[in-house]
Structure formats: structure tokens, C-alpha cells
Write a structure and sequence with these properties.
By secondary structure, this protein is α/β, with parallel strands linked by helices. The protein has helices spanning 29-41, 61-67, 81-93, 113-118, 132-139, 164-174, 196-203, 215-224, 229-233, 242-251; strands at residues 22-25, 45-48, 52-56, 75-78, 105-109, 125-127, 148-157, 178-189, 209-212, 236-239. The strands form two sheets. A six-stranded mixed sheet has the order 3-8-7-4-5-6, sandwiched between helices. A four-stranded parallel sheet has the order 2-1-9-10. It is globular.
């Protein structure tokens, strides 16, 4: 008789698809623990080399001004989980309820909407297509011409800003909306000294798979490697989604593994 809820801890070798594979991943601290656990459960040997850090803003003046007039916006369009968390944390720090975000309609890209749900917030639009153009197309039936749309965004420091937010804002403008970009958190490229030992494994070809969870991570890693894409391409290169895979291809990195078998060739 099978015990309900029982999960075996003693597994056969064939049940560990990543057994003894060194998997190099560049996610920032708050994403790293979950990814490392998932890799270990599948038999991998994780090598964590964070290439970016995410921090709150140093100055909240512009954020507070936007939060004081939430009812002036028709939509808040989130493009990252960090954006959701940054606004919720600031409202809490101000002694206000995160439910105040519901003064306007809320949209998010795919799984980013889960952060809204976790905060107890309503999701008016969960985009089915995980790219900026897809979100804009799904907003169009709501009649966004002339509508004020707040776009929480990162301040990217140390590497060029990935294309996601700028393209999204431009697509909103083309659709007739009035986007308002608001920097709500910082994405900062790491220094070489922080990940030097992990980079040595990569440079020596001792890594089996490299995993990227964002475009900024890739740009920061390539900066640390002085643009030497061939070092990364010795391993299989995996991406968490469409955005990062597109960046990888544009930067000259191999696109070996993408969820849902996307074709970027």
C-alpha cells in the first residue's frame, strides 16, 4: 500500500538526471537557494557564482511620489517579481497596506503574477505570452489608448540595461498608452573578486552546464570574462525563459536549453 505524501530519499542513480554534473548558475542571492535545492535534488553539484545583486533604492523620493497618487494611474504593469516586491515593501515601510495597489488595475508577465497573488493582491491581467509585445497585445482589448500606465523598473548599474523594459515602454507608446517608468530597485553587476574561484572552474572547462535566470546576469558574467563567450560555450548553456535566451543569442552564447523547447536557432 502506497503511503500518501511519502517521498523517497534513497534514489537509484538513474533517477538523478543531473548526477555529478557541475552546474554553474549566476542568480542573485534571493533566487539562488531555491535553484540550488532543485539542482541538488536532481543530483547536480551546484556552483553558485552570482554576477548581479539586487538592492532597494537608496532614495525613495520618486517611489513615494508615485505611491501617493496611485489613483492617477489606470494600470501598473509589472515586468518582474522584484518590481512587485519593491512596491509592496515600500508601502509596508510607510505603514500603508499593499492593498492600496488595487486602486489601479494590475498586470504582470506570466509567473511574475504569482508575486501579486502571494501578496494577497488582485491580478487583472496575467499575460499568457512572456514577452513585452505579448503583454501589450493582451492589454489592447482593455482600451489603453491615452491611459496612464506605471511601469516599475530596475536601475541597472555596471552593465547595459537589458532590452525588456525599454522595449515594453516603447511598445506601450506605439499602442497609444502613456507609460511612466519608475525605478523601484537596483540591479548591480558584481566585481571579479567576489566570484574569482568559481570563474576559475568555468575558465578551466570544469563546468557541465551554465544556467542564466536573467539577461542582466549574462551581461555581467561576460563583463567579468572580458567578453570571452567561448569560455561559457564550452558548457551547455541553459536559460530560464525567452528574454534571457534572446540576450544570449545576441551576445554570441549558445542556446542549448530553454523551457518549452523554444527555437532560437
Amino acid at each position: 500500500m502506497t503511503q500518501i505524501g511519502y517521498s523517497p530519499r534513497l534514489l537509484a542513480k538513474q533517477d538523478l538526471p543531473l548526477r555529478d554534473k557541475r552546474v554553474f548558475f549566476t542568480a542573485p542571492r534571493h533566487y539562488a537557494a531555491g535553484l540550488a535545492e532543485a539542482l541538488v535534488e536532481r543530483g547536480a553539484r551546484p556552483v553558485w557564482a552570482p554576477t548581479i545583486e539586487t538592492w532597494p533604492m537608496d532614495d525613495f523620493t520618486e517611489i513615494d511620489a508615485a505611491l501617493a497618487k496611485l489613483d492617477k494611474y489606470d494600470w501598473i504593469a509589472f515586468t518582474s517579481t522584484n518590481g512587485v516586491e519593491a512596491l509592496c515593501q515600500r508601502l509596508t515601510a510607510l505603514g500603508r497596506s499593499v492593498k492600496e495597489l488595487e486602486k489601479t488595475k494590475l498586470s504582470a508577465l506570466g509567473s511574475d503574477a504569482d508575486a501579486l497573488v502571494a501578496a494577497g493582491l488582485r491580478v487583472d491581467l496575467r499575460a499568457k505570452v512572456g514577452d513585452p509585445t505579448g503583454l501589450v497585445n493582451e492589454l489592447l482589448p482593455f482600451g489603453i489608448t491615452g491611459k496612464n500606465i506605471l511601469v516599475p523598473a530596475p536601475r541597472v548599474i555596471g552593465v547595459p540595461e537589458p532590452y525588456v523594459v525599454p522595449e515594453f515602454i516603447e511598445d506601450l507608446r506605439k499602442a497609444g498608452a502613456v507609460p511612466h517608468r519608475l525605478e523601484v530597485y537596483q540591479t548591480v553587476a558584481m566585481e571579479t573578486s567576489v566570484v574569482s574561484s568559481e570563474l576559475t572552474l568555468l575558465e578551466k572547462g570544469q563546468i557541465d552546464v551554465v544556467v542564466f535566470t536573467s539577461s542582466a546576469e549574462q551581461l555581467a558574467l561576460l563583463k567579468l570574462l572580458n567578453g570571452r563567450t567561448e569560455i561559457v560555450n564550452r558548457a551547455k548553456v541553459a536559460y530560464m525563459g525567452d528574454f534571457s535566451a534572446r540576450t544570449g543569442k545576441e551576445q554570441g552564447l549558445n542556446v542549448d536549453i530553454v523551457p518549452a523547447s523554444k527555437n532560437y536557432g
